[in-house]
Design brief:
Elements: E1 2-5, E2 11-16, E3 19-22, E4 27-32, E5 35-38, E6 43-48, E7 51-54, E8 59-62, H1 66-69, H2 73-76, E9 82-83, E10 86-87, H3 100-119
Antiparallel strand pairs: 1-2, 2-3, 3-4, 4-5, 5-6, 6-7, 7-8, 9-10
């Protein structure tokens, strides 16, 4: 097991075999030959010598700075990562959740519509 440290010396990732995991044991990346894939097998990075490249061939940085180049584990909570205990549940943020106000207005409008339908013939 090798530790990947950021520029401040903090352990951010660990390499266990061909897997890159965070400090909590969540599997984030897999090293396959000269490629780094995410947990679903999607190609994310390419390793050429001592340098790391993105999928478009742009040099991102040196392999020595891998812990600083990869998204931080705090950012990976929002991405899809698998852990040994199963999938994490990501609940929608307040701005993404569907509001109840729309449902309440729709129900009230429907009730008013039904009220006018039933009273329409009786008003004279």
């Amino acid at each position: 097991m090798a530790d990947l440290r950021n520029k401040y010396g903090d352990v951010v990732y660990r390499i266990e075999g061909d897997r890159i995991i965070d400090t909590y044991g969540n599997w984030l990346y897999t090293i396959v030959g000269e490629r780094i894939n995410d947990t679903y097998g999607n190609w994310k990075y390419n390793i050429r010598g001592d340098d790391l490249f993105d999928t478009y061939g742009n040099r991102i940085g040196a392999m020595n700075d891998l812990a600083d180049i990869l998204p931080s584990p705090k950012d990976s909570n929002n991405s899809s990562s698998r852990s040994s205990s199963g999938q994490k549940r990501n609940f929608p943020k307040r701005s993404e959740s569907s509001g109840c106000l729309g449902w309440i207005v729709a129900i009230l409008a429907f009730l008013v519509f039904l009220l006018f339908q039933t009273l329409g013939g009786k008003l004279e």
